[in-house]
Design goal:
The protein is α+β, with helices and mostly antiparallel strands and 183 residues long.
């Protein structure tokens, strides 16, 4: 089974009119949708996903670590935000339905569009994607092994998170982790 992961980070500090954007797609083959898959379903119970994802992400943030060659100090834990989880779910469903793996939605939307649509106004925003991992432990472990995904998880500016996982009709899992801090 081929595993894929991707990352994008956008940081906006609108009050000071400063912006920073870094995007990196670690997936070597983001393919165009060949046909829309109409059937998607959650990978697991959403309460259980929330519990496990919060526990593993916060455990990672509680310890200093290297993300590649970058040293990241331990940082405070994150709180769950249902709007970020809703934005993550909508992107997982979109990727699974269209057989694609990208930070860009099938309608050309990006993560800022998705969180705004869910009613969240971020000061700082990041998104980690993964496809194919069998469970929450595997996906968090893979993100922590990737320097850019790990740095995203360890960014001290983030205070909230939401995540989702959806199965496509072939049983392939699509994961989205939204990390943010509100205004």
């Amino acid at each position: 089974m081929r595993l894929s992961i991707a990352i994008i980070v956008i940081i906006y500090i609108l009050g000071g009119k400063v912006g920073f954007s870094r995007a990196m797609d670690l997936s070597m083959s983001v393919h165009q949708p060949s046909r829309v898959q109409s059937v998607t379903r959650p990978c697991m119970d959403q309460v259980e996903l929330k519990r496990k994802m919060l526990r593993l992400v916060n455990a990672a943030r509680a310890s200093s670590r290297y993300c590649g060659t970058r040293y990241c100090r331990k940082v405070q834990g994150l709180e769950w935000d249902r709007r970020l989880a809703r934005a993550a779910l909508s992107h997982c469903i979109d990727m699974a339905r269209h057989g694609m793996f990208s930070h860009r939605g099938s309608d050309d939307s990006f993560m800022m569009d998705r969180v705004n649509e869910a009613g969240y106004r971020p000061r700082v925003l990041g998104e980690n994607l993964a496809r194919g991992q069998k469970d929450v432990g595997d996906v968090v472990r893979d993100w922590l092994r990737s320097p850019h995904h790990c740095s995203n998880i360890m960014l001290p500016a983030f205070s909230q998170m939401g995540a989702s996982c959806v199965l496509d009709k072939r049983g392939r899992k699509y994961w989205t982790l939204m990390l943010a801090a509100p205004f």
